[in-house]
Design a protein that fits this description.
Helix content is 55%, strand content 3%. It contains five helices and two strands. The protein has a two-stranded antiparallel ribbon with strand order 1-2. The longest helix is centred in the first third of the chain and has 17 residues. The protein is elongated.
Length: 124
């Protein structure tokens, strides 16, 4: 399959996702007509609210991760070790926290909707 055919299909899929705007979906704002997944980037497709991508990782939800990140930012913490230490103050297991931090970053790399929701929870 050629690059242009993939691009055309991606554009059609993006148009379909825009046409499916409705309740129960998390949409990506500012998404162009081509889904960057064809070049290895995160998807711009809308994601259902009940999609497994939103499930907590080791009990840590995206909202929890954003709250931890806000607290870390307020305290001037800007590294993973500091965030794990901060999470221990909340009673979170360090290994679970590490897995959740890595997992949420990975999910953001899969879908722009996750990253945009994260920024929304951060207050941006």
């Amino acid at each position: 399959m050629g690059f242009l055919k993939k691009a055309k299909e991606a554009a059609q899929q993006a148009q379909q996702s825009f046409a499916q705007q409705g309740q129960g979906m998390v949409h990506v704002r500012g998404a162009g007509p081509i889904d960057p997944t064809i070049m290895g980037g995160p998807s711009t497709r809308s994601v259902a609210a009940d999609d497994p991508i939103w499930q907590p990782i080791n009990g840590i939800s995206l909202q929890d991760y954003a709250a931890l990140a806000r607290d870390a930012q307020a305290r001037g913490i800007n590294d993973e070790a500091g965030m794990i230490t901060l999470a221990k103050e909340r009673g979170w297991n360090p290994a679970d926290t590490k897995a959740a931090l890595d997992g949420w970053v990975q999910r953001m790399g899969q879908s722009m909707a996750v990253g945009q929701q994260f920024r929304k929870f951060l207050g941006y």
